[in-house]
Design a protein that fits this description.
About 15% of the residues lie in helices and about 50% in strands. The protein contains 3 helices and 12 strands. The chain has helices at about 1-25, 40, 160; strands spanning about 50-60, 60-70, 75-85, 95-100, 105, 115-125, 140-155, 165-180, 190-200, 205, 215, 220-230. The strands form 3 sheets. Strands 1-2-3-6-7-8-9-12 form an 8-stranded antiparallel beta barrel. It has a two-stranded antiparallel sheet with strand order 4-5. β4 (about 95-100) and β5 (about 105) form a beta hairpin. The longest helix has 25 residues, at about 1-25. The protein is elongated, with a radius of gyration of 30 Å.
């Protein structure tokens, strides 16, 4: 029995050494791709351009828009944004009332205008740590300015018909905020951010509800960027 065990041990040693030798020889052959594996090696921070959409949430409701980025260094990028959101007074709430026909309907008492804001801005985004923490978690600061377009339509008129009476006002707009880039590897762009916009209307403000003028048409914007990047 001991002779058989010894013989098997010798066979295992021979085959094991042969296998290890084969593995060592095979390891000398290194596969090299004829083109760089961008999707596996590059992150969105390695691309120069990026573009996509914005999903926004403000104290006046939801909104949307688009963005375009130009990266000028590993940590700095220029960002261009356009966003459209609804704007309402702080005490503006719908109530169920009886109209002139005796029917119930939802309406905002004393509301005279629908108001929208359309900030068109350019700014700088600065990544605090680059990819030191992680490729898919890069916190950043951002600030910029531009023009805030304020749009106004008459509330008593049906929505689409009221567009015939649209009025617009161009006001200065500045913002500052912070966020985090969760894009990770590949050309996909995914970011979340918080920005505070200051858009002074001037004079006596603009009224959506009688007696409640809005002098600052900005506010806090919580948003998501989603899109793609390219070189």
């Amino acid at each position: 029995m001991s002779k058989k065990i010894t013989f098997l041990a010798i066979l295992l040693a021979i085959f094991g050494s042969y296998f290890l030798s084969a593995q060592t020889k095979d390891s000398n052959f290194v596969f090299k791709s004829p083109r760089p594996l961008i999707g596996a090696q590059s992150s969105s921070g390695d691309y120069r351009f990026a573009a996509g959409g914005n999903l926004l949430f403000t104290d006046s409701g939801f909104g949307g828009g688009a963005f375009y980025d130009i990266r000028i260094s590993p940590k700095i990028a220029l960002e261009f944004d356009i966003s459209l959101t609804y704007l309402r007074a702080s005490d503006e709430y719908q109530q169920l009332v009886v109209n002139q026909d005796g029917n119930y309907e939802w309406t905002v008492p004393d509301k005279i205008h629908r108001v929208f804001r359309l900030p068109i801005t350019a700014g700088i985004r600065y990544e605090l740590f680059g990819s030191v923490l992680s490729d898919n978690f890069r916190p950043y600061l951002t600030a910029g300015g531009g023009t805030g377009i304020i749009l106004q339509t008459p509330y008593p008129t049906a929505f689409f018909q009221s567009l015939n009476y649209l009025e617009s006002f161009a006001k200065p707009a500045v913002y500052a905020g912070f966020g985090a880039d969760f894009s990770g590897k590949g050309s996909r762009v995914s970011r979340v951010f918080i920005k505070y916009y200051y858009i002074p209307f001037g004079n006596e403000g603009i009224e959506s509800v009688v007696g409640l003028p809005m002098t600052n048409c900005g506010g806090l914007f919580l948003g998501i960027n989603f899109g793609g990047a390219w070189k």
